[in-house]
Amino acid sequence: MSHEQTTEYTTVGKTRFFQGEGHTAALFRIEPGIPCRHAREQASELMGYVREMTISGLMDEKPELIWASHYLSALAKALMDDAELGMRG
After folding, report:
1. Alpha helices per DSSP H over 1-89
2. pTM for this one?
3. Nearest by Cα to 74 from 6, 23, 1
4. Separation CA 19–CA 27 (nearest Å)
5. Is 16 helix (H, G, I), strand (E, B) or coil?
6. Do 53 and 72 contact (CB within 8 A), yes or no?
7. Which of 11, 43, 54, 55 is in Cβ range 3.0-4.6 Å of 76 for a Cys bridge?
8. Is 89 helix (H, G, I), strand (E, B) or coil?
9. DSSP label of 27
10. Helices 63-87 and 36-59, axial angle in degrees (round to 10)
């Protein structure tokens, strides 16, 4: 077995999401210890929702869906970024 197959990589808990004026207060951060495979699966699922919400928001002229999809996409990106850090070992 290769090292990659025997090691379960986990998130490192360093990725934070900032929003708003000045970007001084983090709204959330990814917790350390989440299996990277799970974090990536969840990010993919969130991006599917982002896609649907964005289309619905545009077609139905509902800007609140666009904003919600913006925040969900930020969460998905944070999950992916932190999983990437964890997989670097």
Report:
1. 3-6, 36-59, 63-87
2. 0.82
3. 23
4. 7
5. strand
6. yes
7. 43
8. coil
9. E
10. 160
